Amino acid sequence: MKTDLSNDKTGKKSKNAAYTGLLAAIAASSCCIPPVIALIAGVGGSASALSWMEPFRPYLIGLAVIAIGYAWYNHLKPKTEDDCGCKIEKLKWYQTKTFLAAITFFAVISISFPYYAHIFYPDNKKEVIIVESSNVQTENFTISGMTCQACETHINHAVNELDGIVSVESSYENENAQVEYDNSQTTLEEIAIAINSTGYTVEKFQTK
Questions:
Q1: Angle of helix 5-28 versus helix 97-111 axis, rounded to 10
Q2: Which of 24, 42, 44, 74 has the most crowded CB, counting CB atoms within 10 A?
Q3: How far, in Å, CA of 92 to CA of 61, rounded?
Q4: What residues contact 10, with CB distance under 8 A and at least 6 apart?
Q5: How far is 103 from 101, CA to CA, in rounded Å?
């Protein structure tokens, strides 16, 4: 029995398209994955290393969808025999539906990573005992380098490691973090150092 070379070439094109889609999906969230890796590995300074890729995220997601869609199209379209009556032998691993389903699954997981990255961060918020209410202040920190929700969670986690933090709310869209703290237990400088340790940069802060 002979192998239909045209179908084999189509299978390889589908495999290459699937891999392209997966790599594009991973790259689309490459700006968001380092913060989690930094937390696990304890190397906060590398957290924002790939933040420059954030502007390309929509295009990478589009490429992933097109590439994987093309792979599925080739897999699902009706197969025909050629004029010589040749038939494909047993499907190769990269020609199976299981392979494409696995690639699609990992691509979706990669693209959606920023929306569930917070589950990797343990809840480290502590109960703060306020002795003097006049000691409680709110500070607005302007921060550069954040690109997604994962960045926000990373900063919140780092600040909450300090004593005296009543609340902290970061926003990558507004490029800031609002920190309510007891100034008898921690200082602005310590908060700024905690934020900078994540790999993002405190540009300025202003007390409210």
A1: 20
A2: 24
A3: 28
A4: 74
A5: 5
**Pairwise CA distance, residues 152 & 121, whole Å:** 11
pLDDT number for residue 116: 87
Let me know how long the chain is.
208
The pLDDT, as a whole number, for residue 119 is 86
| Side-chain-facing half-sphere of 161: CA atoms under 13 Å | 17
Helices 149-160 and 33-41: angle between axes, nearest 10 degrees: 30
121-207: CATH number: 3.30.70.100
> Where do the domains of the chain lie?
5-116, 121-207
Burial pattern 164-188, b for ≥16 Cβ within 10 A else e, equals bbbebebebeeebbebbbbeebbeb
What's the confidence (pLDDT) of residue 148? 84
How many CA atoms, within 13 angstroms, populate the side-chain half-sphere of residue 91?
A: 12
Q: What is the pLDDT of residues 180-204, one digit of tens each?
A: 999 999 999 999 999 998 888 999 8
Q: CA end-to-end span of the chain, whole Å?
A: 80
* Beta-carbon contacts of residue 163 (< 8 Å; ≥ 6 apart): 126, 128, 185, 186
Residues 67, 20: contact at Cβ < 8 Å?
yes
* pTM for this predicted structure: 0.68
Q: Which residues of the chain have pLDDT under 70?
A: 1-8, 38-51, 79-91, 207-208
